[in-house]
Amino acid sequence: MAVYTISDLHLSLSGDHSMDVFPGWQGYVERIEQNWREHITDADTVVLPGDTSWGLSLEESLADFAFIDRLPGKKILLKGNHDYWWTTKNKMERFFSEHGLNSLQILHNNSVVVEGMAICGSRGWLFETGEAFDAKIINREAIRLELSLAEAEKTGQPPVVFLHYPPVYGENESPQILDVLCRHRVSRCYYGHIHAAGCRYAVEGRYLGIHFRLVSSDFLRFTPVLVEFPEEFS
């Protein structure tokens, strides 16, 4: 029994947004399934930190959710910037239940205890455009991350954070997000969103005492990676 993660699956099994047109993404759905089945068992859990499906609604994403549900293990889903299907936690979980998608769970303003660790997270954001709305979004995401970590602290289990956006990327930072991570003494943070040549600016390793890891599916060659237990709790 273990926890794995992989982000940015960008599925579009019933739509027209296949990523096959991009270099390195050819046959990505088949590669995801093959690698997943080689590494993941039904006893494992996989965290999906955003950009899971291109569907514009839950109904449009149903084929993508069904594909994920058929794969081994339990899955915990977070919101990404392209998850236009995302709605309220109750509505999403009711939709999953109504369609028999019993291995899918939503992480939103909460935490989930798995294998002795508390899974936390939010979408996050970066000052990518320098516009005023960036600050408003980052503040909102910092609050959501704070709520998630506060729930984790009630469990007494060590927190591991998952974000869609990197809180630090090249010379850009989300100071509000980093502040929450540092105040809650988070030691491990996994994130996605970054692809192709942009990966050269991704932080891999320690920054401000936090171990960061990029887990975008193309960066991982479409293979889920093991989530490591926080060192100070080992």
Low-confidence stretches: none
Specify the structural class: alpha/beta
The main β sheet shows up as: 6 strands, mixed
The number of helical runs is: 5
Assembly context of the chains:
single chain
Order of helices and strands: EHEHEHEEEHEEEHEEEE
The name of the CATH superfamily reads: Metallo-dependent phosphatases
* Strand ordering within the main sheet: 5-6-7-10-12-11
Q: Give the total of beta strands.
A: 13
Fraction in beta strands: 15-25%
Radius of gyration of CA atoms, rounded to a whole number: 17 Å
Helix content: 25-40%
Q: In CATH's first tier, which class applies?
A: Alpha Beta
Task: Kindly identify the CATH topology.
Answer: Purple Acid Phosphatase, chain A, domain 2
The termini sit apart by 16 Å
Give the integer mean of the pLDDT values: 93
Using the 3D structure, state the CATH architecture. Answer: 4-Layer Sandwich
Tags for this model:
234 residues, alpha/beta, five-stranded mixed beta sheet, six-stranded mixed beta sheet, Purple Acid Phosphatase, chain A, domain 2
Overall description:
This protein is of the alpha/beta class. It has one domain (3-106, 115-233): Purple Acid Phosphatase, chain A, domain 2, CATH 3.60.21.10. Helix content is 27%, strand content 21%. It has five helices and 13 strands. The strands form three sheets. A six-stranded mixed β-sheet has the order 5-6-7-10-12-11, covered by helices on one side. The protein has a five-stranded mixed β-sheet with strand order 4-3-2-1-13. α4 links the parallel β6 and β7. The longest helix is centred in the middle third of the chain and has 24 residues, at 132-155. The two termini are 16 Å apart. The mean pLDDT is 93.
